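Hi Prof. W.,

I finally got the Flagellar biosynthesis protein FliA prediction working! I wasn't sure whether to trim anything, so I left the full sequence exactly as given:
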Amino acid sequence: MDKDLLWQQFRQNKSQELRHQLVLSYLWLVKHLAGRLAVRLPACISQEDLESCGVFGLIEAVDKFDPDMGRDFESYAYARVRGAMLDEVRRANWIPRTMWHKLQLLKATREKLERKHHQAVTNEAVAREMGVSTAEINRLDNHFQRIYTLSLDEMVTASGGETLRLGDLIPDPASPDPLDKVAEDDNQRLLAQAVAAMSEKDQLVLSLYYRERLTMKEIGLVIGVTESRVCQLHSRALNRLRQKLKEMEETK
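And this is what came out:
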């Protein structure tokens, strides 16, 4: 459908379907901006993360755009989408700019040497290449480690408003998996009933991971979300499966 006609209909009827069509028709803008900003992204942010933030900015732009203001939508959305992406970069990239440039140089130098020698290189070799002391390389490496320091008690919000503890997303090797427990008890029927009672999205994530043996990243490509989002969905699905199995055991 022509975009002008879409906008005309959307202004008359703010339906979710028309809103969805408008967002899809301007997704190219999100990908274009994410591709430009991804060139100098901090290591803790992926281009997929930028695109996710950009989509939220695009949705907000569609909802708030007023053609009577005399601006075309693409110019208006460009600022909104780019702003949403930059907000995410600023939120995640908390280190000073000068330190960030040093870390980028360290990363680029190490990658160049590893490509040249086809193996991991020592800090001494990196220091010689950069013309600094080994102690300085060690100090920069420590900053790299600090970038990834997270609290396991940090709460993250999933879709639907459900809140998960970050530590709950990390598998506990000492804790028996509910799937393994049911298999060991030779009670596949109970498992099938529990899975069948779950939502289609939960069933899909569990099936792709345990039956199709896909990785989290591969599952993300299949269902169109980031790898970190798949981890959240997987953790939530397992928690729900545990609860359903517990309820079914109690009613036996």
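Residues 3-92 form a domain with the Rna Polymerase Sigma Factor; Chain: A fold (CATH 1.10.1740.10). Does that look reasonable to you?

Thanks,
D.
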